[in-house]
Amino acid sequence: MNADFRERQQALTIRKLAVRYSNSSQWVLQDFDLAVRSGEFVVIIGPSGCGKSTLLRLIAGFTQLQQGEIVIGKRIAATAGGVCIPPEERDVGFVFQSYALWPHMTVKANITFPLEQKRFTALQREQRVDEAIMKFGLQEHQHRYPAELSGGQRQRVALARALVGQPALLLMDEPLSSLDVALRKRIQDELLIMHKEWQPTVLYVTHDQDEAVKLADRLIVLNEGKIQQAGTPYDIFHSPNNSFVANFFGEVNELVGSVVENQGNGLCCIRIGDHIFILARTQSSLTSGERVRVFIRPSWVDIQEREDMSNARITDSRFMGAYTDYSLEWQGIPLRVSTQNTISKRVGDSIFLKVKDAWSIKTSE
Ligand SMILES: Nc1ncnc2c1ncn2[C@@H]1O[C@H](COP(=O)(O)OP(=O)(O)OP(=O)(O)O)[C@@H](O)[C@H]1O
């Protein structure tokens, strides 16, 4: 990381933001706060229409806010009805779903464009652009125009253009969505290397959970303009705040039970129907007798073939390659299980199942 870049490094703070489009009475984001550390890679996931792109467009300066403020680095970038630094002066690189390439410029000219406004010598410019062209595999296409490229090729040009100037803040809205799986993985690796090398602050939107887990220092789950949970991918997968997050982020069995005894340190004894677990992780504030919602991921259940004991029956099974998905009936409770264990039991047979892990939160049900 060079000194110039270190000086420009940007944190991002959003306070009490509210926005709605002029043709709509609905607020897309309201009372929205977000703080991103300088150099952090934040991935935003959420269902279609929850406000992810709007948030990125606001930060880039393409959409106006009605309330609140956006601070990029030490500068106030936008306030309601007041300050609005134009997009090109925000030192922000962006890749949006629509590639927004200049149609009258070649690939090479598109990629060179962000460097025109920065203080680079002609030689530095040439080196950086050539490097970006190589990195994104665009050597053969560099003299073509955007209209002569496929969707995936245009997306790579948009990525190269966003990264070439090493902006201190990068906004990326599903930047890899039109690439095939192999290329997507390769560019994900490139993004991680780039992030390690010059540590820009990144806000990245994706629908792909694997991509989110791979890239994120911190993950933000958004729904209807509200942050449902922010945390490491591990925390969000293992300890979801609510039912929405648990279901949005991977498959989950969701059951209702009660606390038999909270032993502290996150260990708790939980009853669900006739079953009692003694290894369930819970919110620390739960007390005996309290109703809880219990989340059990399919991979948190172990199934065994035992002659002496059984407590469940197989109702369906599907071989998935690296693992097998089972539907089980666990003494009246339907349960989905994924396991890498090979068992000889078939649909209708009895097996013994053991819940290895579960996460419970308070519920009023
Ligand atoms: N230009 C616009 N005019 C009016 N409404 C808009 C406009 N752009 C977005 N919206 C609305 O704002 C809400 C949030 O849209 P946004 O594009 O931010 O969602 P998103 O989470 O990025 O969705 P997706 O994952 O489908 O891209 C939606 O209800 C959408 O219909």
UniProtKB/TrEMBL annotation:
Source organism superkingdom: Bacteria
One protein family per Pfam: ABC_tran
Keywords, in A-Z order: ATP-binding, Nucleotide-binding, Transport
EC number: 7.6.2.9
ATP-binding found in the keyword field: yes
GO MF annotation: an example: ATP hydrolysis activity
ABC transporter domain boundaries: 14-249
Cross-referenced PANTHER family: BICARBONATE TRANSPORT ATP-BINDING PROTEIN CMPC (PTHR42781:SF8), SPERMIDINE/PUTRESCINE IMPORT ATP-BINDING PROTEIN POTA (PTHR42781)
Protein's name in the database: ABC-type quaternary amine transporter
Organism of this sequence: Pelosinus fermentans B4
